Amino acid sequence: MALWIPITIFAAFMQNLRFLLQRHLKVTTLSTAGATWARFAYSAPLVAVLVVVYLGLSGQALPRPDLRFWAFLVPGALAQILATMCVVALFAFRNFPVGITLKKSEVMLSALIGFILLGEGLSGVLIVAIVVGFVGVVLLSDPPRPDAALPIWRRVVNRASGFGLASGVLFGVSAVGYRGASLALPDGDVFLRASLTLAAATAVQTLALGAWLALRERGEIARVAASWRVSAPMGVASMLGSLGWFTAFTLQTAALVKALGQIELLFTFLFSVFWLGERSSAKELTGVAFLLASIGLIFLGSL
User: Fold this and answer.
1) How open is the CA angle 105-153-103, to the nearest 5 degrees?
2) DSSP letter string over 196-264?
């Protein structure tokens, strides 16, 4: 089995756990921006320590990032901030599994963005997968109790679908940006390049969003600090999940990693049913099925 496969499955599980903890922070304590910043603030120091320890253990020299590295990393890091905020905000409109599934439009969009920015192939099977996935997103975007008098396009164009699709675009940009940044490093093994890229990204995110909170949401940073009982475990889950994603992106194309990463949907529904006690409608489950079919086509098309 290729190494990127178990790494991606592990990353998907940890990401699902992190979003679950972020959802808790959003609905109980913090604002959307605060719950987003908590993820970066509590994971950034852990990643920095990890890089230092790994450098000492491996005996490697620290790679020197060049302009190409930062040109990929900074847009990717900022896109991930906005994408995470979109997902956290989405939880106020739809239940946990539907919110995560709408976010998973990133699979289709990563394939397109990777083709545009990195020249990674887009076969006929991948194009079909994108169309199938679009049908799934439409079904999930239609509210549970729609106004039958409105046409379908009016029902699916709503805040939930807007946040979901926006997060998909932004997560697609961040995935491709991180892959480009990791590949731009001149030397170092896979784990060192992945962890250094992650450390640089979380540092940029912590500083950028922290400055915004200090200026626009007075007192929110103090509330994040006070929420450490939930935020600290979320930071650990975030670090482990992100490290898994970054390593997988270094080993494989962003589209294929994101395709396999849709196993997160299985974890999401298990958490939703057995932890949150939520239920999904038949239409929402059909939409999930279309997205899973899209995922399968992407995976097959990349073999």
Assistant:
1) 15
2) HHHHHHHHHHHHHHHHHHHHHSTTHHHHHHHTHHHHHHHHHHHHHHHHHHHHHHHHS-HHHHHHHGGGH
- Token pair, residue 284, equals 């929402």
pTM value is 0.74
The residue ranges of every structural domain in the chain are: 4-301
Q: Exposed e or buried b for every residue in 153-190, given b needs 16+ CB within 10 A?
A: eebbebebbbbbbbbbbbbbbbbbbbbbbbebbeebeb
Instruction: Please give the chain's pLDDT, 303 residues, in tens.
Output: 678 888 988 998 898 888 888 888 887 889 989 988 998 999 999 999 999 999 999 999 999 899 999 999 999 999 999 988 887 777 666 555 566 666 666 666 666 666 676 666 656 776 676 677 667 666 655 555 555 454 544 454 556 667 777 887 888 788 889 889 999 998 889 899 999 999 999 999 999 999 999 999 989 999 999 999 999 999 999 999 989 988 888 888 776 777 777 777 667 767 666 666 666 677 767 777 776 777 677 666 656
Cβ(16)–Cβ(234) below 8 Å = no
